[in-house]
Amino acid sequence: MNWKQLISAKRWGYERRESHEQFDARSEFQRDYDRLIFSSPFRRLQNKTQVFPLPGAVFVHNRLTHSLEVASVGRSLGRLFYNLMKQEYPKIDEEVPYLQEVGNIISAACLSHDLGNPAFGHSGEAAISSYFTEGEGKKYQEQVTPKQWSDLTHFEGNANALRILTHAFNGKDPKGFALTYATLASIVKYPCSAIDGHVKGNHHRKKYGFFEGERESFEKIALELGLQKDPTNPNGYLRHPLVYLVEAADDICYNIIDLEDAHHLKILSYEEVEDLLLPLCGSESLKARLESLGDKGSRVELLRAKAINTLIQGCASVFVQNQDKFLTGAFESSLVDALDTEIVKQMKKIEKVSVARIYNAPTVVQIEIAGYKVMNALLEEFVPAYLKTNKTMFDKKLVAMIPEQFHTDKEDAYSKIRAVLDFVSGMTDVYAVDLYRKIKGISIPSLD
User: Fold this and answer.
1) In this structure, are residues 179 and 108 in contact, taking their beta carbons and an 8 Å threshold?
2) For residue 50, what pLDDT is reported?
3) How many CA atoms lie within 13 A of 60 on its CB side?
4) Quick check: 303 pLDDT over 80?
5) Strand partners for 62
6) In the chain, at which end, N or C, are there fewer CB atoms within 10 A of the end residue's CB?
7) Band (29; pLDDT cuts 50, 70, 90)
8) What is the C-alpha separation between 366 and 362, in angstroms, rounded?
9) For this UniProt entry, which residues form the secretion signal (predicted)?
10) Per the domain annotation, does 85 fall within a domain?
11) pLDDT digits (tens, 9 = 90+) for 390-405
């Protein structure tokens, strides 16, 4: 793979249109960022759970604030990568005209990395999958192909993001978001289908990155950008190198910022947070500066900022130093896991504490259980109603609640199920709970 081909400004659905950047206020990749930040799916992230329940008396991160912060870190990673490349290869701009845009590409990809996540986070993903593996959805297995069934039984937010960005929904632009090929490829962490994913020890196939319905779309992107075939999987590809920087930005944010939220919610004491973050800050003099701050929340903010800076610097350096491995697909770990041994050791300690104290905190577990039940119940109502040939009056009422953009003209079971999943997975936490209560008769809509 080579950077000149990998960083393509060709736009999905408008492949023949020429760029006129010299006359525009924005580059093609800045347009990607703006299209995402003004979009409805992005705005809905404000009411989707990141870790802690929403809303709460104390402000904590949701999917939208998380995505904005990941985009900020991603932009810094991309900019630092470009600066380091420029130092090592002074004529790099002549060889790779768009390399200076890497920060914009990564920040746009970071904005969209959680776009396909359903309500209630990973609990929502699990609910969708279990509906088909353990619930009433098992009966549809005979109506779909093995590849399609693998999609349904392993619902993946990353693959759903690619669908949202490229699928022609009813009444919407048939080109989807019409993002550049480089940005689209940079969000696909696992460039294979569901049936080829979930392979332990394979960084390109840990999960999967596209549904069967988007296989041709991704293959078109891969061909344009020159992505290499995965030698372990003839139907899959190696990652676009920029995926590693998008992944690093996400890893950095959720590992560090979840600690900040846990402190706000009094799940972790200041002393515990300092013990976890100070070793990542790389400054012996920081202790005195921290002690000069009377507000412990301000101390945590300083620790967070310094720790993130250390991780950004380290990840960018690893990325530049291992160019050959990234361009040949030979790099088999995340950037964070390839940092200095002491940093990795401290990150593992943070992960261990986060799992034990944060992700299994009572309020987090409660929302996961409730969300699981809500999502599963919605599927039990809408999937059968949409698939039935002879619909009852109640079925017709349910189907009428699905917005027109999610309906499909196709008659096969997979397309119809996919249409319902598009609707349900796009719901916010608040909307999902409200709809659940209404269709179950727990609450009655106001007649005012």
Assistant:
1) yes
2) 65
3) 26
4) yes
5) 49
6) C
7) very high
8) 6
9) none
10) no
11) 999 999 999 999 999 9
pLDDT at 57 over 60: no
> Tokens representing 103?
């920060």
pLDDT range class, residue 115, cuts 50, 70, 90: very high
User: Tokens 């900022």 correspond to what residue?
Assistant: 305
424 within some domain = yes
**How much is the pLDDT for 246?**
96
Structure-block tokens of residue 196: 């080829």
- Cα dihedral 151→156→162→164 (10° resolution): 90
The values of phi and psi at residue 263, to 5°, are -70, -45
H-state helical runs in 322-361: 323-328, 341-353
Burial 246-258 (b: 16+ CB within 10 A, else e): bbbbbbbbbbbbb
- Dihedral angle computed from the Cα positions of residues 372, 377, 383 and 386, in that order, rounded to the nearest 10 degrees: -140
Estimate the crossing angle of helix 362-387 against helix 413-425, to 10 degrees.
140
- 162 domain-assigned: no
State which residues form the domain around 413: 362-439
Nearest to 387 by CA among 159, 199, 142: 142
Predicted model pTM:
0.91
In a domain, 127, yes or no: no
- Number of folded domains that form the chain: 1
3-state SS of the chain: helix, strand, coil percent to 5? Answer: 65, 5, 35
Is it the case that residue 297 has pLDDT exceeding 70?
yes
